[in-house]
Task: structure prediction
Amino acid sequence: MKPENESIVTELILRGFTTDKKLQVLLFIIFILIYVLTLLGNVSILMIICMDPHLHTPMYFFLGCLAVLDLGFSSTSSPKMLVDMLVERKAISYFGCLTQLIFYGGFGSTEFFLLAMMAYDRYVAICNPLLYTLTITKSLTIHLVAVSYVGGFLNSLIDLGCFLQLSLCGPNIIDHFMCDYPVLLNLSCTDFTMTELVRIVCASFVMLISLLFVLISYAYIIAAVLKIRTSAGRLRVFSTCSSHFICVSLLYGTILFTEVRPSSSTSHEQDKVVAVFSTVLIPLLNPLIYSLRNQDMKEALRKILSRAMFFQ
Result:
C-alpha cells in the first residue's frame, strides 16, 4: 500500500550546475560554444566523407556512423541544458525525462557496439589485408551498424521497462542538469534494488561484450604488427588504429567510472562532472581526434577547400 500523502511525480525540476546567475551566463557561453563546435565537427566529417570518393570505404562509413551517434548523443541533453541556464524555472515533464533516458541510453550503448565493429574492421584490414574487400563488404557494414543500433536501443528499452515499474513521488527536484537513472531512482517510492541491479547488469553486459571484442581484435593487431620488421612499418600500421584506440579509451574510461556502480557510491556533483564529459566533451573530441590524426581526412579536407576556392 502506498502512503495517502504520497504524490506521483508528473514534472521534474532540474537544479542544474549552480544558482549563481553570473556563473550560469558564463557556463552558457562555454557550453554553447562547445555544442556548436560539436555540431560543426561531426557534420564536417559527414560532409567530407560524402564528398570525397576516396573515403567511400568501410572504415570511413563506420566513422560517419560514429559522427551521427555523437550528434545524437550530444543533442540528447545539451539543448535542454542550455535553455535551463537562461530560465528561472528548470522544469522537464515526466515524458520528456523518459525520452532523454531512452536516447541517452540508446545512443550511448550503440556507440560501444559501433566502436567494437570498428575494431573488427581494423583487425581484418591489418591481419588479413588481401581478404579485406571480400570480408568487409558494403552489405556487412550496413548489417553491423544495424546490429549496433538494435543492441544499443534494446538495452536502453530494457532499462526503461524496469524503471517504469517504479513509482516516483515527491520531492520532484533532482540535483542534475539532465535525467539520469541514478538520481531518478532516489525519487522512487518503491524498492528499486532489482531495477538498479538490472541496470548495472545490462550496462556491464554491453561494456564487457564490446570491450572483449575490442581487446581480442587489438590482441591480433598487436601480434601482426610485431611481426613487421621495420619500425617505420610498425608505426604506419599503428597510426591507422591510434585514433580509434584513443576514442575507445575515453568512452570506456568515462562510462565505466559513472555507470557500473551503485547509485549511492558517489556524489551528485561527481555525477554531473562525468555526465558533462560523456555527453558534451566526448562528442566534441571524437571528430577532433579523427580529423587531426588522420592524414586521409586532412588531405580530403584540403582538396575540398582548394576546389571551393577555385570555383570562387
Notes: Confidence is low (pLDDT under 50) at residues 1-7. The first strand starts at residue 11 and ends at 14.
